[in-house]
Amino acid sequence: MAEVWVVNSSPLIVLDRLGRLDLLARLGNTLIVPGGVLAEISRGPRPINPGRLNSFRVEAVEVIDPVVAAWDLGRGESEVLTCAASVHADAAVLDDRSARRCATALGLATHGTLHVLLAAKEAGLLPSVAPMIERARAEGLFLSDALVAKVLVLAGEKP
């Protein structure tokens, strides 16, 4: 059964830099990107062309939930959590630790980039997650050694 995922900029940027932005859509979930996230990924030194996100539904977030606002997160994270709560999403897909803590406080499930890679391997879309994790780290995604080891065990690729 397809889930509804609201996706933040970090997973989009990392997956784009890995050349695997397609994985999100290929996992078969309903994907939502808030307008603030779309604006964020559309600018900067390595922007993502919004046309590449045609499998995503764009949602405008006019007002940030006051509980989310109290966490003083970035605009993208705040919009993802506000949107996820308002549409009763199955998961907010984000990597930021503070945003994940806020999501937990709100009772929202979270997934990160590594979850996407692991789900892709389980779906037969990737032969291995280890090389993707190393490339994600090289692209600047901070991942603790303990988390990487845990994911590699779950993927059947012990470190």
Structure description:
It contains nine helices and five strands. With 159 residues, it is α/β, with parallel strands linked by helices. The protein has a domain at 4-113: 5'-nuclease (Rossmann fold), CATH 3.40.50. It has a five-stranded parallel sheet. It starts with a strand and ends in a 5-residue tail after the last helix. The mean pLDDT is 94.
TL;DR of this structure?
The chain is α/β, with parallel strands linked by helices and 159 residues long.
Describe the secondary-structure layout.
Blueprint: E1 4-7, H1 9-17, H2 22-26, E2 30-34, H3 35-41, E3 56-59, H4 66-69, H5 75-87, E4 91-93, H6 97-106, E5 110-111, H7 113-122, H8 130-138, H9 145-154
Parallel strand pairs: 1-2, 1-4, 2-3, 4-5
Helix pairs in contact: 3-5, 5-6
